[in-house]
């Protein structure tokens, strides 16, 4: 099943409200408000199977992030062997997770400004996003696997100047380099966990049509369920929380010479069977 988050042009929404619909051969059939869905995902998934609402008319809605504003966004660093090799980092002994803020989420076609500090430009990092469908605390991998709602595409657009400053500190942090305005590009579709094999998915990026990354989730160091279980031993994961599972080789900072996105560039991140998200890079002002 494929679900899609959107905002209807004529609807009366709060600042963070959105709707969720079922994608069928004839369009998007409205299901419920996003907040209601995540209050009881299992029940709404059952209702989605039988959803027979008339499809939305094309051009009457905009895409929206498929996670609630309360979502925790956890991201895995150096979780692909090929990416560790290109950046010179040793494979981690346990999942290395950092956080993003929902305020920096953006959807397909959104403009992403280059922060003033990032004088070289911005980098790209395609990732498979995993959305949690039930509460998880102190879970084992089997429980974590069963709690997966589905998958989306994620582009962890990064500011390497700020991130590099953090890396050079004994106790560094990545917050500024990983939370630039609109820099967490996310697909609006959720492909439910029963619909694909997440352990064998091609994913990549294209910059102005040129392939930059072309990898496969087989290259992950830590599996999805393993990372979710690991995270659940430190905090409670709730429905709608997102795990971005790391990026394969081909990022700009790993190239010789390094290459970064500049105003006027367009980047597309894609995951086969899941979807794609396109971002337009613009100047900060």
Account of the protein in words:
The protein is an alpha+beta fold. The chain folds into two domains: 2-63, no CATH class; 73-283, Fumarylacetoacetase-like, C-terminal domain (Fumarylacetoacetate hydrolase, domain 2, Alpha-Beta Complex). It is 16% helix and 33% strand. The protein contains six helices and 17 strands. The strands form two sheets. Strands 1, 2, 3, 4, 5, 6, 7, 9, 10, 11, 12 and 15 form a twelve-stranded mixed β-sheet that branches. Strands 8-17-16-13-14 form a five-stranded mixed β-sheet, with no helix packed on it. A hairpin with a 2-residue loop joins strand 13 and strand 14 (210-216). It is globular and about 55 Å long. The protein starts with a strand and ends with a strand. The mean pLDDT is 94.
Would you summarize the structure shown here?
The chain is α+β, with helices and mostly antiparallel strands and 285 residues long.
Give descriptors for this structure.
Fumarylacetoacetase-like_C; 12-stranded mixed β-sheet; alpha+beta; 5-stranded mixed β-sheet; globular; Fumarylacetoacetate hydrolase, domain 2; 285 residues; single chain; 16% helix; 6 helices; 2 domains
Give me the Rg, rounded.
18 Å
Topology as H/E string? EEEHHEEHEEEEHEHEEEEHEEE
Biggest sheet, open or closed, and with what strands and sense? 12 strands, mixed
Question: Helicity, in percent?
Answer: 10-25%
Q: What is the CATH-assigned architecture of the largest domain?
A: Alpha-Beta Complex
Sequence stretches where pLDDT stays below 50 over 5 or more residues: none
Number of H/I helices: 6
What's the end-to-end separation, in Å?
A: 41 Å
Output the CATH class name of the largest domain: Alpha Beta
CATH T-level fold name of the largest domain: Fumarylacetoacetate hydrolase, domain 2
Shape category: globular
Strand content: 25-35%
């Amino acid at each position: 099943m494929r679900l899609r988050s959107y905002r209807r042009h004529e609807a009366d929404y709060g600042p963070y409200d959105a709707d969720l619909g079922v994608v069928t051969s004839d369009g998007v059939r409205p299901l419920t408000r996003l907040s209601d869905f995540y209050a009881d995902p299992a029940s709404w998934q059952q209702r989605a199977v039988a959803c027979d609402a008339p499809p939305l008319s094309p051009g009457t809605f905009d895409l929206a992030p498929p996670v609630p504003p309360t979502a925790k966004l956890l991201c895995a660093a150096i979780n692909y062997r090929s990416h560790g090799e290109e950046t010179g980092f040793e494979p981690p002994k346990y999942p290395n997770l950092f956080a993003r803020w929902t305020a920096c989420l953006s959807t397909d076609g959104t403009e992403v400004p280059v922060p003033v500090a990032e004088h070289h430009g911005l980098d790209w990092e395609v990732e498979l996003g995993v959305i949690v469908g039930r509460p998880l605390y102190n879970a084992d991998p089997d429980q974590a696997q069963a709690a997966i709602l589905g998958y989306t595409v994620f582009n962890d657009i990064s500011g390497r100047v700020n991130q590099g400053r953090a890396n050079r500190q004994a106790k560094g942090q990545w917050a500024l380099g990983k939370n630039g305005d609109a820099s967490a590009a996310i697909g609006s579709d959720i492909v439910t966990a029963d619909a694909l094999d997440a352990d064998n998915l091609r994913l990549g990026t294209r910059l102005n049509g040129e392939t930059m990354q072309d990898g496969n989730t087989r290259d992950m160091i830590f599996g999805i369920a393993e990372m979710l279980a690991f995270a659940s031993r430190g905090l409670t994961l709730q429905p709608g929380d997102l795990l971005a599972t790391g990026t394969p080789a081909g990022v700009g900072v790993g190239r010789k010479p390094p290459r970064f996105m500049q105003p006027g560039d367009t980047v597309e991140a894609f995951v086969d069977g899941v979807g794609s998200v396109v971002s337009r890079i613009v100047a900060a002002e």
